[in-house]
């Protein structure tokens, strides 16, 4: 396996908090590397990092330290990364999140879609929401020490959006490559396949999940939100506000309070990005794996992780080599 001589040749940090998010990232590498020669002896937890190339960019994939998850572990992981690679100024937080779908309001978010943090003049594309102990309300506050998203990534997002106005996204092709065992995707697992639209069910906020099974076979069809079938199963990309919260959201009432507190602008909730962005400028990319309600399960997580990773690979084509 190739090993570059200097860690300074790695210019982008890809943060993957779940094992399956790391697997999706590694499945899309053009080339996998061993640890750089000049820091190999400094890696106390070598398993926290993976190294490789995507297109013209050498990237380091960082996982949460010690296999921990959530907002408490993220700052430690990024702090360790910055101490190891102080020259890195560009980060990507890539993985799964809970979508806030409002089809009646034109916010037709489906499972497997991709949400990209996009500043809008009033926010940096990410806000922090602290939930109180009761779990039924939230306190909304702008992050106190945010980093601006990297300008080079925002410029790439603009270029990619312009391109998508004319030509389709490459995400479906990249996903097919994962399944075929192309150089990109040679280590992909069959779990990254689309689970099927029949399992993508959105229920009204007042309907709690029935039963202990992960599926919604016993939930009331009359309380399911009616949505037209899409022309294809390809993911749609949405740009806007993401809320970073301090616990897993699986309650529609809590989700809806967050939506209200953010001025009905929030597209997605997740847990780690606020702690990461307080230390490292990042763009946040989340594949929608659930609707942040009681019907939440893990069925869509692998596919959602793959769509988010594929978006980043396409985005990096529009980032100049550094």
UniProtKB/TrEMBL annotation:
InterPro entries: NLR-like, Nucleoside_phosphorylase_sf
One GO-annotated biological process of the protein: nucleoside metabolic process
Molecular function via GO: catalytic activity
Protein name stated in the entry: Nucleoside phosphorylase domain-containing protein
Organism for this UniProt entry: Fusarium sarcochroum
């Amino acid at each position: 396996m190739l090993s570059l001589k200097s860690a300074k040749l790695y210019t982008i940090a890809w943060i993957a908090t779940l094992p399956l998010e790391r697997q999706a990232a590694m499945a899309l590498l053009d080339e996998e590397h061993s640890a750089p020669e000049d820091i190999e002896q400094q890696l106390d937890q070598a398993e926290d990092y993976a190294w490789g190339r995507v297109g013209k960019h050498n990237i380091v994939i960082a996982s949460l330290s010690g296999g921990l998850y959530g907002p408490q572990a993220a700052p430690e992981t990024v702090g360790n990364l910055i101490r190891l690679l102080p020259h890195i100024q560009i980060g990507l937080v890539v993985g799964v999140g809970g979508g806030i779908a409002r089809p009646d309001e034109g916010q037709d978010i489906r499972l497997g879609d991709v949400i990209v943090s996009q500043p809008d003049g009033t926010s940096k594309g990410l806000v922090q929401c602290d939930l109180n102990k009761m779990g039924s309300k939230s306190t909304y506050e702008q992050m106190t020490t945010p980093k601006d998203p990297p300008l080079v990534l925002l410029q790439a997002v603009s270029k990619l959006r312009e391109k998508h106005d004319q030509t389709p996204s490459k995400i479906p092709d990249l996903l097919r490559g994962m399944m075929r065992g192309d150089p990109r995707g040679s280590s992909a697992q069959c779990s990254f396949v689309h689970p099927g639209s029949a399992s993508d069910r959105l229920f009204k906020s007042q309907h709690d999940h029935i039963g202990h099974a992960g599926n919604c076979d016993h939930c009331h069809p009359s309380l399911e939100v009616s949505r037209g079938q899409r022309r294809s199963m390809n993911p749609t990309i949405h740009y806007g506000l993401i809320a970073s919260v301090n616990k897993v959201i699986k309650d529609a009432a809590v989700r809806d309070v967050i939506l209200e507190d953010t001025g009905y602008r929030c597209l997605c909730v997740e847990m780690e990005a606020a702690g990461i962005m307080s230390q490292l400028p990042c763009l946040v990319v989340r594949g929608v794996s659930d609707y942040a309600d009681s019907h939440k399960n893990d069925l869509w997580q692998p596919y959602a992780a793959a769509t988010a990773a594929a978006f980043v690979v396409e985005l990096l084509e529009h980032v100049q080599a550094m």
